[in-house]
Amino acid sequence: MFDLVPFRNRSRRDVVERDEDPFNSLVSGFFDDVMDFAGRSFRADIKESDEEYTIEAEMPGMKKEDIQLEINDDYLTISAEHQEEKEEKKENYIRRERRQGKYTRSFYLENVNQDDIKAEYDEGVLKVHLPKEEKTPVKKRTIDIE
């Protein structure tokens, strides 16, 4: 139903070299975390019941209007774009901050009734309900060991 793709591959040599120098480890660890967060899409949990699949995507700070769901060739794409600008003026300083982010995730759909997909957004969590077209029986059998 859903594909899982590792997002980061590190060679063993990179990890060993980085760990040899404590300063390098501290600095690169800090920037790796910051840069990884900047490039990472939102987190999503996928649940399955007898009747449906449910995707729960964490999207804190987003408004419902910022989120788009689209189905194309059996792929559900969830995308969100957020822009925020704050300006604060006081006696001797001016502070102006801008944040912008665009996040996209796609999920392959199989055995889903695409016409009955429903979504809801509440307190930073998007829930997408994907009803199954047919119930898939649990296949269970024992395997003999040779």
UniProtKB/TrEMBL annotation:
* UniProt-listed CDD domains: ACD_LpsHSP_like (cd06471)
The SHSP domain sits at 33-146
Q: Name one Pfam family in it.
A: HSP20
SUPFAM superfamilies, per this entry? HSP20-like chaperones
Q: Which family does it belong to?
A: Belongs to the small heat shock protein (HSP20) family.
Q: What is this protein called?
A: HSP20 family protein
